Amino acid sequence: MNREILIELLQQVQDKELTVDQALSKIKLEPLEKFNHSLIDRHRAIRKGHPEVIYCENKNSNQISEIITRLIPDTYNIIATRIDIEKVEVLRKLSIKIEYNNDARIAIINRKQFTKNRGMILIVSGGTSDIPVAEEAALTAEAMGNRVERLYDVGVAGLHRLLSHLKLIDEATVIIAVAGMEGALASVVGGLNDKPVIAVPTSIGYGANFKGVSALLTMLNSCAGGITVVNIDNGFGAGYAAGLINKQIENLANKIIDNKQ
What we know:
By secondary structure, the chain is of the alpha/beta class. The chain has two domains: 3-109, no CATH class; 120-248, Rossmann fold, CATH 3.40.50.1970. The chain has eleven helices and eleven strands. The chain has helices at 3-14, 20-27, 44-48, 61-71, 85-92, 131-143, 159-163, 166-171, 185-190, 213-220, 235-260, and strands spanning 32-35, 38-41, 54-55, 78-81, 98-101, 106-109, 120-125, 147-151, 174-179, 197-201, 227-229. The strands form three sheets. It has a five-stranded parallel β-sheet with strand order 8-7-9-10-11. A four-stranded mixed β-sheet has the order 3-4-6-5, sandwiched between helices. The longest helix has 26 residues, at 235-260. The radius of gyration is 20 Å and the shape is globular.
């Protein structure tokens, strides 16, 4: 069950629009629903602030369709990662609302626009070739209710391109640095500001790049403080982590405002 739906139900009970028993009947679904091939965690949105995400690689269209069909009645902004256009076309036959980014291979299903957090997540990519991974991060963070800005193709091969956007970098709450090749972008970004930086190595590069391992090692060995690193090409993981950080900052700001009133 989505957190917003649960809050709405509780508000209806408080306003005497629903009885306790009526509200209970709406939320009495077991936290875990097991069927055929999958085990759905229906209460993840209550614990994490966002519903369960569907990793679609190696799942067939029927499996994905069944999972989404079971999630969609009480869940908004379902994220499906590593999903191909062929599987998306099958989902469209279900007459569900779906937005798809072919480059990032990510789909947002049953999207609902929530009030965005005041903080801003900035996605920085080294090159145009890194954009698919950067977009996976950006779309994930946006689906979680965050304001996202993009700053693409500003790698260290032309450092002036990055330095011309210092104002935007300074306005960010969290920064995601996405780069392949030698992966130096994360260190440079981390040395320019006091914001947490989530580094994403990509598999972009020539032979000695070892499909992203060299960028991963560079980021892990960064001398700039405040950098954390996710796995190779894991834009989703970076976007999700940045979303959680931004939300905690938002919650803290709201508490400060409430205490002043």
